[in-house]
Specification:
Pfam families: TPR_14. With 82 residues, this protein is mainly α. It has two domains: 46 residues, no CATH class; 31 residues, no CATH class. The protein has five helices and no strands. Helix 2 runs antiparallel to helix 3.
Length: 82
């Protein structure tokens, strides 16, 4: 069952794509649902922002395990967000 609560839980867990799909389904069933509309706008903006994520750095993040690697990723992340 696709509910706003389930979508919120997915969103809080970082499962943004799954949450977005649920919000879209809710909006199809109830086009006047303002909470779903707001969530779709919010998540669509987040998704657009991260389309340019550096794939190489994403792989590095997944595999990093030393303090030096964490610091390197932290520097990259700070640079990317500024």
């Amino acid at each position: 069952m696709q509910t706003l609560t389930l979508a919120n839980i997915y969103e809080l867990q970082g499962l943004k794509e799954e949450a977005l799909e649920i919000y879209k389904e809710i909006l199809k069933k109830d086009p006047s649902n303002s909470e779903a509309k707001i969530a779709i706008r919010r998540l669509s903006g987040v998704r657009k922002k991260f389309l340019k994520v550096n794939t190489q750095m994403k792989e590095f993040f997944v595999k990093m395990d030393t303090d030096v690697e964490f610091k390197e990723f932290e520097r990259w992340l700070l640079k990317a967000w500024n």
